[in-house]
Write a structure and sequence with these properties.
This protein is an alpha+beta fold and about 120 residues long. Helices cover about 35% and strands about 10% of the residues. The chain is built from 5 helices and 3 strands, in the order H-H-H-E-H-H-E-E.
């Protein structure tokens, strides 16, 4: 008995990132800067519904690519627009372990609860 063929060939390489049509057609999304839109996708790559996403400014600046100031601005934009919420602040300590900021994506499930969709009220 043969294996079933995958009807979606683009899904063979490790998954697909999708955004809801109502989200990408919303005024609040369309007003975002290009770096903020890229950051949304980069954050979603690390998404899991049972834990927050650890993603820092340096990593965002490297992956977008942009300056640190632009990356900070992108995080601020997404927070103010209601797309993301900070769960834990970063901690830097050269003598002990450091940790990055953690984020919740408001358009997706979090800890097995429905999405809060705070972006809809902006």
């Amino acid at each position: 008995m043969g294996k079933k063929k995958n009807p979606l060939p683009f899904d063979r390489a490790g998954g697909v990132i999708t955004l809801q049509r109502r989200l990408i057609e919303s005024d609040v999304y369309l007003r975002l800067s290009p770096p903020a839109k890229v950051l949304m996708t980069l954050l979603q790559v690390h998404w899991a519904n049972d834990k927050p996403i650890g993603y820092g400014i340096r990593e965002a600046a490297d992956k977008i690519p942009c300056s640190r100031r632009t990356a900070m601005s992108a995080f601020k934009e997404l927070t103010e627009a209601g797309f993301i919420t900070m769960v834990n602040e970063s901690l830097f300590n050269s003598r002990t372990t450091s940790k990055t900021r953690t984020w919740k994506l408001n358009w997706l499930l979090y800890k097995y609860k429905q999405a809060t969709n705070e972006w809809k009220s902006n």
